[in-house]
Amino acid sequence: MGDFILETKGLTKRFGGFTAVNKVNLQIERGTIHALIGPNGAGKTTFFNLLTKFITPSSGQILYNGEDITRWEPAEIAEHGIIRSFQISAVFPHLTALENVRLSLQKRLNVSYQFWRSARVLASLNDEAMQRLDQVGLKRYADLHAVELPYGRKRALEIATTLGLEPELMLLDEPTQGMGAEDVGQVSDLIKSVSVGRTIIMVEHNLGVVAKLADRITVLNRGEVLAEGGYEEVSKNPEVMEAYMGVTAEEASA
Fold first, then answer.
1. Which of 133, 157, 187, 231 is the most exposed place for a label (fewest CB within 10 A)?
2. DSSP codes, the chain
């Protein structure tokens, strides 16, 4: 048996008569990068929302470090080390890169809303904030406002703010969406570097990124697990080729 940081058992979400996620059993091994792929409407983002309790499961269980967290609140999930990013970069555009990361440190230290605190007290967080920026290659951009950063750098800044919360499990939702080739390469390298010592689950459409980063892949289709395994195994699965890539095995070999 592997050391699983997160498991789902029969996880299901229904919206009226529509089943978005249907009896998904998933095991995420600690210290790995696990990718979720599938066509649009496969249930990937809904599944992420279930894991982080943005929506409540209709049935099934979510286990984190062996503990049933199915009924936990979103804040409780985050406090225990499960942190997610979103498809759209979620940083404060008119704060500097340093200030954005410092806010995440304030949240971790339970002083996130104490904006009245003296500059001297807040400055005590600067060293750690700079370390987080350095970790994602943004140290030289510390005093630049987030709105001025190129898109790929904004995603790097979002990862830096996530690291400030000291996640044990990071959920990355489409981390390279909308990027050019250069930014995709930089963010892929960044994800690989920050994965050391933690576990990452990511939804990603770019199969090149998946092939480069993922230790294991789960393919969802119509809310159900279609296939699972390494990239070589999954990419050659006829059902995956038809559902995800839109071609049959016969067409692919023609």
1. 231
2. ---EEEEEEEEEEEETTEEEEEEEEEEEETT-EEEEE-STTSSHHHHHHHHTTSS--SEEEEEETTEE-TT--HHHHHHTTEEE--SS--S-TTSBHHHHHHHHHHHHTT-TT-TTS-HHHHHTTHHHHHHHHHHTT-GGGTTSBGGGS-HHHHHHHHHHHHHHT--SEEEEESTTTT--HHHHHHHHHHHHHHTTTSEEEEE---HHHHHHH-SEEEEEETTEEEEEE-HHHHHT-HHHHHHHSS--HHHHH-
